[in-house]
Amino acid sequence: MKEPIYVDHAATSPVHPSVAESMLPYMTTVFGNPSSIHSFGRKSRQVIDQARESIAKLIGAKESEIIFTSGGTEADNMAIVGVATANQHKGKHIITTSIEHHAVLHTCQTLEKQGFEVTYLSVNEAGVIDLNELKNAMRTDTILVTVMFGNNEVGTLQPIEEIAALLTEYDVYFHSDAVQAYGSVPIRVDQLKVDLLSVSAHKINGPKGVGFLYVREGTKLNPLTFGGEQERKRRAGTENVPGIVGLMNAMKISQSELQSKQIRFQEFQELFIQTLDEHQINYEINGKNAKRLPHILNLYFPGINIESFLVNLDLAGVAASSGSACTAGSIEPSHVLCALFGTESERTKASIRYSFGLGNTKEQIQIVAEETANIVKRLTRR
């Protein structure tokens, strides 16, 4: 059997060997509870403090502005629900987009059931919002705008700096889900002027089950969990010390390799497209007329059956996906592609996402593109 090739890094990524190695001591020898005052606890507390300092520096924040979480979903929930409940005396209107991750969409829908009002901005066929639509959606009772940095399905980047500049005229908080974007594009909160930002370790070759929420100093935010006084009383629960160490080291590596990864993944995309063209395959790039994350390539193949395509890819030893991991196995078409092209478009049912990452080589991408071309030919043969 051929060695399987993993091109679904947008769903999750393998832990970098040096990250895994860095975590081991904090599972075995430095295992104290960071809230304990004895030497075992103090050692754990020290490493959390060091990680918080390093992570804050990497994104241009203050140490006090970093809240460790169990990952991107919790960070998104904390940002949206935390701000909404803490500021509802000023208003109950939230603005987001129609292509957010479900961690944002489902949280907003839950708040709607609790009396909040949510405006879902549309996107063009490239997957980008219209700043004028955002401006027109602003109201006196708007308290929060939440717009993802880079889309997890088609890779489209939103104009975060321009959104932040527009929002300076209003008394609102601005949150961005940067789970898919961090590690692929430069992100510094001091330059972006966002108030809240979500990041997850497992998308950047760190461990699953850990992430953080950046919260700008002075932001009014209610906690979601209650118990101890961890994370400055903002998130109760014993900290995941090994995970936090892994997150810190994954972030350091991802930042040091940022430019080389961008170049490499762009080469992968070009090689993939060139191979399809050589085979005269009929395809379209979803989100092609926008700035996109370099590691995501979402392709529409007219006339294919998506389930058959994925099964054939899997049999060929290629792990790709038809959308976000959170909807894998669902027969519902991608809400992102529906937002881009309309619910009746064939693109919503005949598109595949390839996402590149650690361990992928040009040789592998060539094989994946060749296998893709062969499968398309088979499935569209009349």
TrEMBL record:
It catalyses: (sulfur carrier)-H + L-cysteine = (sulfur carrier)-SH + L-alanine. The keyword Transferase applies. Residues 5-367 form the Aminotransferase class V domain. Its cofactor is pyridoxal 5'-phosphate. Keywords: Iron, Iron-sulfur, Metal-binding, Pyridoxal phosphate, Transferase. It comes from the Bacteria. Coiled coil: none annotated. The keyword Cell wall biogenesis/degradation does not apply. PANTHER family: CYSTEINE DESULFURASE (PTHR11601:SF34), CYSTEINE DESULFURYLASE FAMILY MEMBER (PTHR11601). Belongs to the class-V pyridoxal-phosphate-dependent aminotransferase family. NifS/IscS subfamily. This is cysteine desulfurase. It comes from Bacillus salitolerans. The lineage of its organism: Bacteria, Bacillati, Bacillota, Bacilli, Bacillales.
